[in-house]
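User: Batch of two.

Assistant: Item 1 of 2:
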Amino acid sequence: MTTTKTSTCPAPPHKLPVRVCLDVEVVDKSSRDIDDTLLLLLIAGDPRFDLRAVTLTPGTEAQVAITRRILTRAGRSEVPVGVPLRKENISENPLDASTKESEVRNDLKTNSKHESQSAKRNSKNGSKSAKINSTKLSDAAKYLGGDIPSSLQQDDAAELLCRVSDKETVIITGSQLTNVANALQQGMICRRWVGQGGFASSSVLPEQIKADDIETTTSYNLNKDKAAFTTMMEAIEEGKQISEALFVSSKRHADESNQMSAKWQARLKVAAEKQAAGAIVNKQTPNVFSSGSAASARKETLELFLELCSLGYISKDKKLHDVLLLAVVLEPSVCSWTNGVEVYHAGEGKWGSRMHPNQKEFPRISYCHDPVAYLEVVLPLPTAMETVVKREEAQLLEAESHQEVKGNKVKGKKKRR
């Protein structure tokens, strides 16, 4: 059967704030990444979101403590936190033991190879900052955890999602699909699911924008629980519990606007400073950031983001995969989409997408984004502030250049010795 590629944008929210549940893998001492935590930080402090619940994977005490500290600092201490409490888990239903063991070995081998190649590239380019630094992540977890007790009451993640999600709710997933899939099996419904994972294969891209012939690649989030992915896809195809599904293909969004570049840092710093002065007014929703409690929460979370940067917990050029989800929820048009795709596991930890044989509108998968629109949605500023951002970016780049020259001189002296 011949299928036709269509590319239309999902509808934006019909009103603000958007009712959301956030399902993430917040950083702890064993975590490999911090971008889920940054997504939580930005959403918790953003008055454009009505945050109904935060569910965690795997749900360690450290993760709970960090989540509660962020929610408290954002003035949202009443938001319930869910962790996987029930022993029964769909991810424990393997196709068969030997198949699962083989796939796990292949996934680990593929991911290890990918990270090794990435590390070699960073070393070759003289950059150590893009590597995953487990010590820094552990320190960041301790810093964020503070003195908030983790022994406070937690809900079961799946039961919590069933209780608070309804036909007006958007579920945002920045990690594996276990919690959401378990909730679906218990009857959860939602208006839209937005998740980071999968890959927009070359064959589903419009001809005019194809830049490669890559059909499959690794997808860390989907690899971690394939049974949960199957449950999700069944619900998406049925269309009764999940009305719309949007896969954000992070490996198609690798550019300066989606990493901790000088441009990102400059905009973040100006946004935090102007928010502190009560100067932020969003173009679509005037004064949404300038009311008392909202302005205070926004200021607190942006300043905490800056603290993590200044303390070195967010490395230079760190990829911000999950932060793009925030922009997609508020303004889906920041991305370009292919409609009616089928996301599939190709084996050995590789994932791809192809056109669905039934040509359904959903799920959709993203393949590129507008870098200017993306930053304007995530960190909105009045137009007059753009000049200030550019000036701040120039100063950051100059400081980085001086630091690099200084480092090279030190290396030269060591070699001469």
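Item 2 of 2:
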Amino acid sequence: ELQDDFYLNLVDWSSQNVLSVGLGACVYLWSACNSQVTRLCDLTNDNDTVTSVSWAERGNLVAVGTNRGYVQIWDVSANKKLNVLEGHSARVGALAWNGDLLSSGSRDRHIFQRDIRTPSQVPERHLVGHRQEVCGLKWSPDNQYLASGGNDNKLFVWNVSSQSPMQTYTDHLAAVKAIAWSPHHHGLLASGGGTADRCIRFWNTLTGQAMQSIDTTSQVCNLAWSKHSSELVSTHGYSQNQILVWKYPSLVQVAKLTGHSSRVLYLAISPDGEAIVTGAGDETLRFWNVFSKARSQKESKSALSLFTSIR
């Protein structure tokens, strides 16, 4: 089942138009082209479960973080596990690719960064800064900066070579899982806070300045920018379980989408940038045309097809 856990990242959509979904001990792949479902892996025999999934940019490799602290790299076309990265001592809930480099964030508070072409036992970089679980991890569009969010309510920005954070933002009052770099404004970073915070905040990471912030009245689970326009989508938990679309910089709310009956913990954007998929603790995946020219307030028809076909 799709776990109702704020700290996990169990849905991702590849550049080749394939969704990966972590369900319990398994990762399933769903082709948006032909609706075919395949099971990529099953960790039952390892007495392990899936805690994160993330596609490499080319869409040929998928990284799978596990509850026991491993990161598996799978070649999807060959249906083959290439390697297993060790080093974390607790679950890996956040993954972020930068070319052949893979960053992983864990409940052990550490971030590792490794080159998957030369996987040694020793991580290439070991980033220590968070005091609690790392739950958000995103590389900037130019691949120069890594933003990390933690259950310690902190947001850090690391550059490609530093061992300590270049910037520290401490304004959030709850866990920072939702992180998104703007593809339109260089250095602009958005972050969202959990239940005790509920705010989306914007940062100019070039100057270290805090920009706008808005109280959304609900736990912020995810954020993503439109590829085509200066808009972003946020997904929410307690108490309204809604999906909101905002204009930037005005922060005018241009759409409100409802349909999930529990918190909208998972979000991914289609490769063409027009649709999103959301996943929730109500065990449904839903598809929405939020960024298309003909924006729809309703979910598209394929809402439950993934889950019915998996079951």
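The two ends are 10 Å apart (CA to CA).
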